[in-house]
Specification:
This protein is mainly beta. It has one domain. It is built from 1 helix and 9 strands, in the order αβββββββββ. Strands 1-2-3-4-5-6-7-9-8 form a 9-stranded mixed beta barrel. Strand 1 and strand 2 (47-60) form a beta hairpin.
Length: 208
């Protein structure tokens, strides 16, 4: 009887060890980020573009980081509606794509943009403009796609800081720099987040 109990305990302990090892080997992505990305908006065609070479940092749910040096981030989307009023910028974007690639041009994560809504939460009186936004995208591929449970996501916390020029609408070109973070949300597993932090933009007049 005592021998049977020992065997059961040993088997149970072995199962627990295997489960723990399995959870470590299947750690999922907690965040992907890139900083200092060149950003521009072209009023003529309404295209918002964020592209640059940058180190792409991937952190998993265990807190471990992998850095893809000299990778690339690319986001391109199109203005659908400029609902700006009273000097407050409000724009709706849709279509386009986003992608993270490594230095060998292998796609780490790609997605189609469903929508991005950008608004100016307060009037900076021509001294400072802050634009924030939310939206949605669908993950479409990449070697890290399997670490996102289902291919749907939310784009959140898009922040554009404009100083000293003011952006009261989307009738003029502007340029700047963005910090990007993509975060899958555990519950529900279908949701991901994209944050663009510390985007400093400079208004650029259109050439005549």
């Amino acid at each position: 009887m005592e021998m049977k109990r020992r065997v059961r305990v040993t088997v149970l302990f072995g199962v627990m060890v295997l489960l723990a090892a399995g959870s470590v080997s299947h750690a999922t992505i907690q965040s992907m980020s890139a900083t200092g990305l060149t950003t521009s908006f072209t009023a003529d065609d309404g295209v918002l573009s964020i592209w640059d070479t940058a180190d792409i940092v991937v952190e998993n749910t265990l807190g471990q980081q992998t850095t893809y040096t000299q990778g690339e981030f690319d986001l391109n989307t199109l203005l659908q509606t400029d609902a700006s009023s009273g000097g407050i910028a409000i724009g709706s974007f849709a279509g386009g794509y986003l992608s993270f690639t490594d230095s060998s041009d292998n796609a780490l994560l790609t997605g189609d943009i469903v929508s991005i809504d950008i608004v100016e939460p307060f009037d900076g009186w021509g001294m400072l403009t802050v634009l924030t936004g939310q939206g949605q995208f669908k993950v479409t591929g990449g070697i890290l796609e399997s670490d996102f449970a289902l291919p749907h996501g939310d784009i959140v916390q898009i922040t554009f800081n404009v100083s000293p020029a003011s952006i009261g609408d989307f009738s003029a070109d502007f340029t700047g720099s963005s910090n990007i973070t993509v975060m899958p949300v555990p519950e529900p597993a279908t949701i991901c987040m994209l944050s663009l932090g510390g985007l400093g933009l400079l208004r650029r007049r259109k050439s005549v």
